[in-house]
Amino acid sequence: MAVLASALLAVGATGCSRPVDPVERLDKKATSTLRTHSLPAATYRRWGLPAPLPPAPKPPGRPAVRPAGPGLPPVVDRVPTRDKVVFLTFDDSAERDPRFVDMVRELRLPVTMFLTDSVVGPGYAHFGRLRAVGASVQNHTLDHPYLPGLPYAGQRAEICGQQEKLKQRFGIRPRLFRPPYGAHNDDTLRAAADCGVTAVVLWRDPDRLRAGDILRPEGRNGATLAETTTRVLNDIQEQGFTVARLEDYLSPSSPSGV
């Protein structure tokens, strides 16, 4: 009887619930690793990659960037971080590459799309498909003007107007903004802040990557968007980096437009 009682006490100590799956003991980063490396080899090879992209580390708890001034959003082309990550951002263009949607979905790529209403036009459905597979949608003005050539009111109309358009289309109000041509002045920053923007995002095109670089892949020699992205992803892998979600590093506690 004493043996039986001891056994029952042992059961009570461990509980009667199902055994804990070992995966549940892993932290978020490790679980992400398992998900990433569960991709069939044929998937990443189909997109021209020699191996899966390593998972991004757990994002920081708060933005690491400083505002441009009191009440103004930061202007960034690189996020200050020690994480071996870079960020993929794309501006709207005339190209509507359906393979790029498949690429984002199959590789689980965290990408950020900056949209201009007059350029996107009837192509909003394409970006809706991208958003459905995980892409983030952000603001790139209504009409793609050279913003420093406009007064404050004109700049505010361009930025806030696209905020409303994207709200109507996707039900979100973006927190990130990319000025056309990367051109901006103090009025741009004031207008962006007044429209609810939390960061103004530029980009870098370095030959040698650094942690936190914000990239804007562009097609060359007639390459499609999917082909261009494959080239960039190979460069990222060769230099020991992976791709992270920009919004996680710029506004982790705010709606990201995803």
Provide an overview of this structure:
By secondary structure, the chain is of the alpha/beta class. It has one domain (42-55, 66-250): Alpha-Beta Barrel (TIM Barrel). The chain is built from ten helices and eight strands. Residues 1-37 and 253-258 have low confidence and may be disordered.
Task: Furnish the topology, listing elements before pairings.
Layout: H1 2-14, H2 28-37, H3 41-46, E1 75-76, E2 85-91, H4 98-107, E3 111-115, H5 117-120, H6 124-132, E4 136-139, H7 152-170, E5 176-177, H8 186-194, E6 199-201, E7 214-215, H9 225-238, E8 242-243, H10 246-250
Parallel strand pairs: 1-6, 2-3, 2-7, 2-8, 3-4, 5-6
Helix pairs in contact: 7-8
Using brief descriptors, characterize the structure shown.
258 residues, five-stranded parallel beta sheet, three-stranded parallel beta sheet, 8 strands, 10% strand, disordered N terminus, disordered C terminus
Backbone CA Rg: 22 Å
Q: Helical region count?
A: 10
Number of self-contained structural domains: 1
What structural class do helix, strand and pairing data support? alpha/beta
CATH architecture: Alpha-Beta Barrel
Mean pLDDT: 84
| Content of β-strand | 5-15%
Q: What characterizes the major β-sheet?
A: 5 strands, parallel
SSE pattern, N- to C-terminal? HHHEEHEHHEHEHEEHEH
3D shape? globular
